[in-house]
Design goal:
Length: about 200
């Protein structure tokens, strides 16, 4: 079976009640911790400049930047919140996968949930748990030396998973969302004389 199809089907078919209680508890703990880290990160370097730049990316009033209250298009709010969460490097890390899964996953979840509206707590927890699962599985599956920023790559797939989960994607649509993440990775890859492939 194709790995992305398997991950997509897993995300689509798994609901809150399918999650082990330990996974739900861990998700709640890391969700609170990550929001706290994002609040602290709101005072970090270059936050004001980043949010100022993002204000020029569009005028949609879809999602909120933590602490600042600035309303931005959902993708821009997700970028600002991810920056605030990660800028001091206090966000949680999955060491075996070499990813900071909550940074991209929670930022995308909060932005999509706010844009969409009506997302219940159980749906949000399930989406976060599944997005982290996807990001960590992709990171842990890599056996190559780090030639790219693994958190940024793996988190993109986790973010696609959470947005697709909240939007109710079927497996085929989820595969296409994951394909968009692959395309984003490929567009950012620039071979160098030492590393000719990503």
């Amino acid at each position: 079976m194709d790995a992305i199809l398997g991950l997509s089907e897993h995300v689509v078919r798994t609901g809150y009640r399918d999650l082990p209680s330990a996974a739900v508890g861990a998700t709640k703990t890391f969700l609170q911790d990550t929001i706290g880290v994002g609040v602290a990160g709101s005072a970090g370097p270059w936050v004001e400049e980043l949010v100022g730049c993002l204000c020029g990316w569009g005028a949609a009033d879809e999602a909120t930047v933590l602490v600042r209250g600035t309303r931005l298009p959902a993708p821009a709010a997700a970028v600002a919140n991810a920056y605030q969460i990660n800028n001091s490097e206090f966000d949680c890390v999955h060491e075996a996968a070499v990813v900071h899964p909550m940074t991209g996953v929670l930022s995308a979840t909060l932005a999509q949930a706010e844009r969409q509206g009506g997302v219940r707590g159980e749906e949000l927890i399930a989406a976060v748990a599944l997005g982290v699962d996807v990001a960590c599985h992709i990171g842990a599956a890599s056996r190559a030396p780090l030639k790219f920023f693994r958190p940024g790559t793996a988190d993109g797939f986790g973010a696609a998973a959470v947005v697709g989960k909240l939007m109710g994607f079927d497996a085929a649509t989820m595969v296409r969302a994951m394909g968009s993440s692959i395309a984003r990775c490929a567009a950012r890859c620039r071979p160098t004389p030492r590393a000719r492939s990503c």
